[in-house]
Design goal:
The complex is a heterodimer of chains A (about 260) and B (about 650). Chain A is α+β, with helices and mostly antiparallel strands and about 260 residues long. Chain A has helices spanning about 1-15, 30-65, 80-105, 230-255, and strands at about 120-130, 130-135, 150-155, 155-160, 165-170, 175-180, 185-190, 195-200, 205-210, 225-230. In chain A, strand 1 and strand 2 (about 130-135) form a beta hairpin. In chain A, helix 2 runs antiparallel to helix 3 (about 80-105). The longest helix of chain B has about 35 residues, at about 75-105. Classes of the chains: A alpha+beta (about 260), B mainly alpha (about 650).
Chain lengths: ~260, ~650
């Protein structure tokens, strides 16, 4: 029976094997995402060995000592406390080693380590049902007195390549998750608490991910999208944002003498 | 001087034949007998297993294609919330409490429980909770997922009353669990059989103690969180309102403490049930009883303390995530030890692969896969990659599947005690293979989908996400999972009417529940034996065997013949009479080998058994050593251990 059971599960696992090309997560494009891949691969291998060890021992024992009918009472093996202590000691050493590895590989995983001289930009990412708002306060032209404190965009974060992007993550309504697997860890956006994370994208392209905390009925559309562009394109993009907000501001000021911001 | 084997007949009151004035369902509903209450727990929770699996497959059917529009977005969330709440709060915990509530008092030789009315209240609070939750289907179903985190569950973002129904349902059920735990702790503390020190207590009783304390720690925390949420929603409270100085993370911590506690309860229960079944079906004692019971305590403590594993991505300090990582990683030590003890117990055993063992092995495999996956993601770095994706969810689902399989194994093992009838082996083995195989395929497919960062609880994914095939495979596998669960449920139900009579001790078990009749009478035992090892019933059998070998019937008692050994009992379900005791092999002469006293009040410290050390001239030194130091070597490790329990009596 158990042999059939094992065979059946192996066979069904083999059926799923076309998917096994997907055993690797997305390629990392930020140093902290690289650390997460290292943690993943090490734990995948160590964990698989542990699982196989646990299951293998049981299956071997069942296969070797299976009997039918009521034979003699088997020998009652004695448990020297030694073997249990040794097993506990061995497992503890393994756990300790994995823990030290885990601390080493996970320390500061929210923060990408930048090389000397890497440029940095600060962006506020603010979650709301069901899209992200990105503010670039330092890139805003014009002053607070003109009614412009920041420039902003929705949905898609555009950043330059090879630049450290410091994200301050916040939420205006419910809990969301900022998560772009290729660019770093997931981070909760909790209202009232600003969480810092950063990444350094090493290649231009479009990187996506999903929020992973249920946030209401349209939660599947709550995506984190990052477009990494060259420095020049980024300059143009910021200039475009500034121009559009200036245009909007003047339009508002012309139509409403009170000068309220209506964006 | 050979002691008389058959005690003199004494007058006794036999209650058989006194008709009850109530119908059977009214008796069940109003009885404070722990066995009736436990049967209600088991029956109700199995109903919600069926509901939860059906709802789970409905959500999988919805996810069979990208951009699915089978259900509206809200409807999907409602079904998924119902499925997750039903499988954890309405099935897993009460099911474990039901099996434990039935078996553990019998195992420790108690004639009842310490606080029977509280135990009964526990069930009815739970029943009221299930009613509150499912009545909400008539107006608005909650749709906030397993744990409705504020601010989403505040009245601003969830103005419908579905969340209130969820709060009431989970809160009442949890209160019930807490009542149950208080009763179980009091019972285990005060009502163990004479001589049953903790080191001789059965593994399941140790697990019941661990589970009770987990409930006592995490349950009130959850009730507090739910109360705060209810105040926030209905009475203008600001506990979780960040804008007013509240803290949304507080609810996240408290609710995850609770759900991690439930997860730990499932693991402890499954490990304990398998640890009961493996020795019985290997015809050997557990390789190390103390290693298993100590490990169960460690699993309970470490598993519950690892609750922040679910919060790696939240704004908590890095130190806290490392603490949770250490707790999660450390779980490998006790769980690995338990697996090692199982393997060593079966080694050189005479293994009979009946349904309870087959289901146990399937459960052990599913648990290893699920817990192994969780162990991998408990490292912060890999956790932040996989946490809250379907890859982490499938680990949890594999653990739940392991729990369900262990629960089925437990039912196969103990239903003959509860109903007096055996459950068929064939369908159970087929169901075990089907459930394990389909859960593995589901797990593998969802693991890959999680690597492609498909999030949990999402009602749809998009064609460009590249997870369409994986979700198709997972959906097909979940249908087979459903078929497997329903085959086994039908098999269990069928045994009520069609099962063969099992007798009092169908598996030659070694713990005290097999000393009682099947089904046990209201008072469980007429007489409670002294316990000298973790295998009291084996000691009794050995004593009988030894006496039969040497016994010469004394003249005056020649009229009554000595009891036969090994003759299956027809399953007499009458009240415990002296006749019934005599025909039941293990209890052949209760007057001689058991204590006539109930376990009441005795704290059963180990000295009590040493005082009544048998006056056996054959090997007094060895006998004393074996009784004093059961931790040295496996308890009762010799073939001549039958000397204990021989000829002594405490009156």
């Amino acid at each position: 029976m158990l042999r059939a059971l094992g065979g059946a599960s192996l066979g069904l696992l083999a059926l799923a094997s076309p998917a096994s090309a997907a055993i690797a997560p997305d390629v990392a494009h930020s140093p902290n995402a690289e650390d997460m891949r290292v943690a993943y691969w090490v734990m995948l291998i160590v964990g698989s060995v542990v699982i196989l060890g646990l299951i293998g021992g049981l299956l071997v024992a069942v296969r070797r000592f299976r009997t039918t009918g009521h034979g003699d009472e088997p020998r009652r093996l004695t448990a020297g406390s030694g073997i249990i202590a040794k097993a506990a000691g061995g497992l503890s050493v393994l756990v300790l080693a994995v823990f030290i590895f885990g601390v080493a590989v996970s320390s500061g995983v929210r923060d990408a380590t930048a090389e000397e001289g890497t440029e940095e930009i600060d962006v506020k990412a603010i979650g709301q049902q069901w899209l992200w708002r990105f503010e670039y306060p330092a890139q805003a032209e014009g002053s607070f007195s003109e009614g412009i404190s920041t420039i902003f965009s929705y949905s898609e974060l555009v950043v330059p390549v090879d630049t450290k992007v410091n994200l301050s993550i916040d939420s205006t309504d419910v809990i969301h998750t900022w998560f772009v697997p290729a660019l770093g860890p997931q981070v909760w956006a909790v209202p009232g608490e600003v969480t810092e994370t950063s990444f350094i994208a090493d290649e231009e392209g479009l990187y996506t991910g999903s929020s992973t905390v249920y946030s209401g009925s349209s939660y599947p559309t709550m995506r984190s999208i990052v477009k990494v562009v060259s420095a020049d394109e980024y300059e143009d993009y910021i200039a475009g944002l500034n121009a559009s907000i200036q245009a909007g501001q003047s339009a508002v000021q012309e139509s409403a003498p009170g000068g309220e911001e209506s964006e | 001087m050979v002691p008389p084997t058959i005690a003199e007949r004494r007058p006794e009151v036999v209650t058989r034949g006194v008709a009850s004035g109530r119908t059977s369902w009214a008796t069940s509903a109003t009885s404070a007998d722990h066995k009736e209450v436990a049967k209600l727990f088991i029956g109700t929770s199995l109903t919600f297993l069926a509901v939860a699996v059906l709802a789970f497959v409905l959500t999988r059917v919805h996810l069979i294609t990208p951009d699915s529009t089978i259900f509206r977005l809200e409807l999907f969330s409602r079904i998924s919330t119902a499925s997750m709440t039903a499988i954890t709060v309405l099935f897993a915990v009460p099911f474990a409490l039901g099996i434990l509530g039935y078996v553990v008092p019998l195992q420790v030789g108690a004639r009842g429980v310490a606080l029977p009315r509280l135990n009964q209240l526990a069930y009815w609070l739970y029943a009221a909770g299930t009613l509150c939750f499912f009545v909400s289907f008539l107006y608005t179903v909650p749709e906030s997922g397993l744990s409705p985190l504020p601010p989403l569950s505040d009245d601003v973002y969830s103005p419908q009353h579905g969340i209130d129904a969820w709060i009431a349902g989970v809160g009442l059920a949890t209160l019930g669990f807490v009542c149950w735990a208080i009763n179980m702790v009091a019972t285990l503390k005060n009502m163990r059989a004479p001589g049953m020190a903790w080191r001789r207590a059965p593994v399941l009783a140790s697990a019941a103690r661990v589970i009770s304390y987990i409930v006592l720690v995490t349950g009130p925390a959850m009730v507090a969180a739910l109360t705060m949420l209810a105040i926030d929603r209905n009475f203008g409270g600001v506990f979780f309102d960040a804008g007013e100085g509240g803290e949304p993370m507080l609810f996240a911590h408290l609710s995850w403490l609770y759900f991690t506690g439930i997860h730990t309860i499932m693991v402890v229960f499954a490990l304990a049930v398998i640890s009961e079944i493996v020795p019985t079906f290997s015809r050997k004692p557990l390789f190390s009883h103390s290693a298993v019971t100590t490990s169960l305590i460690a699993v309970g403590v470490l598993g519950t303390l690892a609750w922040m594993q679910n919060l790696y991505a939240s704004p908590i300090g890095e130190g806290f995530t490392f603490f949770a990582m250490l707790m999660g990683l450390s779980l490998l030590v006790p769980i690995g030890l338990i697996y090692a003890v199982w393997t060593l117990t079966m080694w050189e055993g005479a293994i009979s692969t009946r349904a309870p063992l087959a289901l146990s092995i399937a459960s052990a495999i599913a648990l290893a896969l699920g817990l192994g996956g969780q162990w991998m993601t408990s490292v912060v770095g890999s956790g932040l990659l996989l946490e809250n994706t379907v890859a982490a969810q499938q680990d949890t689902i594999l653990v739940i599947v392991g729990f369900v399989l262990a629960g089925f194994a437990g039912l196969h093992y103990w239903l003959p005690k509860m109903t007096g009838r055996t459950v068929a082996d064939g369908p159970a083995k087929a169901a075990a293979a089907l459930i394990l195989a389909s859960a593995s395929v589901y797990g593998l497919a969802m693991f890959f989908a999680g690597l492609a960062s498909q999030p949990v609880d999402a009602s749809r994914y998009f064609a460009g996400d590249g997870v369409g095939t994986l979700n198709l495979i997972a959906t097909i596998a979940s249908v087979f999972l459903l078929i497997g669960v329903f085959i086994e449920l039908a098999n269990l139900i069928r045994s009520y009417g069609a099962g063969r009579p099992a007798g009092h001790d169908p598996w030659r078990g070694s713990t005290l529940e097999w000393f009682a009749l099947s089904p046990p009478p209201a008072h469980n035992f007429d007489a409670v034996p002294d316990v000298r090892s973790p295998e009291p019933l084996r000691d009794i059998r050995e004593a009988i065997r030894e006496r039969e070998a040497t016994f010469v019937p004394p003249e005056p008692l020649a009229a009554s013949s000595p009891p036969e050994v090994g003759v299956p009992d027809p399953g007499d379900d009458a009240g415990m009479s002296e006749k019934a005791v005599e025909t039941d092999a293990p209890t052949a002469d209760p007057e001689d080998i058991v204590s006539g006293e109930a376990a009441d009040g005795s704290d059963s410290d180990e000295e009590s058994s040493d005082e009544v050390e048998p006056a056996d001239e054959a090997q007094p030194e060895e006998g004393r050593a074996a009784a004093d130091e059961p931790h040295e070597g496996s308890e009762l490790d010799t073939d001549d251990s039958g000397e204990s329990g021989d000829g002594s009596s405490v009156s």
